Amino acid sequence: MSDDIYREIILDHYRNPRNKGKMANPDVSIHDSNPLCGDEIDIHLKVDGDKIKDIKFEGRGCAISQASASMLTEMVAGKPLTSIKDLTKDDILENIGLTNLGPARIKCALLSLKVLKLGMVQYYANKDPASAKKLQDDSKGL
Amino acid sequence: MMQKGALNVQKIREDFPILKRKMSGGKQLVYLDNAATTQKPLAVIDSIHDYYMNYNSNIHRAVHQMAEEATLAFETTREKVAKFINARSIEEIIFTRNATEALNLVAYSWGRANIKKDDKVVITEIEHHSNIVPWQILTTEKNAKLEYIGVDDDGYLKMNEYKKHLDSNKVKLVSVTHMSNVLGTIVPVNDIIKMSHEKGIPVLIDGAQSVPHMQVDVQKMDCDFMAFSAHKMLGPTGVGILYVKKEILEKMPPFLGGGDMIKEVHKYETRYNDLPYKFEGGTPNIADVIGFSAAIDYLNNIGMDRVREHEIELTKYAIDRITGVKGVTLYGPRNTKDRGGVVSFNIGDIHPHDLATIMNDHGIAIRSGHHCAQVLMERLDVSATSRASFYIYNTKEEIDKFIDALDEARRLFKI
Question: How confident is the model at residue B411 (pLDDT cuts 50, 70, 90)?
Answer without folding.
Answer: very high
